[in-house]
Amino acid sequence: MAATPALDFVLFHVADLGSALAFFSEKLGCARVLDEDAPGFHFLRGGHGVDFGLAQVHPGGPAAGTVQVYFKTADLEGARAALLRQQVDAAPIVSLPFGPVFDVGAPDGFALTLLGAV
Questions:
Q1: How far is CA 118 from each of CA 11, 39, 46, 72, 100, rounded to the nearest angstrom?
Q2: Which residue of 20, 62, 66, 68 pairs with 14 in a disulfide if CB–CB is 3.0 to 4.6 A?
Q3: What is the pLDDT of residues 53-108, one digit of tens each?
């Protein structure tokens, strides 16, 4: 891969969104970013530049306790092509409201997603 992707965002899939928000904001002191919230989702500022989110689990989605890690890259298509050349399972690129992404088949079943820089 031409450039090493940078850790950008972590998403915690939770069974009880209110309890998770209380834990991260009140117990750990993380700041909620209200203008980034959406139904079933809270955005929080982590320390040292890595933000994270809390997503309410829903039928058909990841189970509670799943942690999804996002790495950002300036060349999403090139990163996917490089992974495929190395025989890494890389899903097709899809467009989401926050940018283009693709999931990667990481060892041990980690939920790993590469995000294009927009």
A1: 19, 23, 21, 10, 8
A2: 20
A3: 999 999 999 999 999 999 999 999 999 999 999 999 999 999 998 899 999 988 88
The answer to whether the beta carbons of residues 2 and 23 sit under 8 Å apart is no
pLDDT at 1 > cutoff 60: no
Who's near 88: CB < 8 A, 6+ residues apart?
104, 105
State how far the Cα of 79 lies from the Cα of 36, in Å rounded to an integer.
27
Please report, for residues 25, 77, 100, 106, the alpha-carbon distance to residue 81 in angstroms, rounded to integers and kept in the order given.
39, 6, 15, 16
**What order of strands is seen across the sheet that includes strand 31-32?**
31-32, 41-45, 51-56, 6-14, 67-73, 111-116, 99-105, 94-96
The string of pLDDT tens digits covering residues 47-63 is 777 899 999 999 999 99
Amino acid present at 47: G
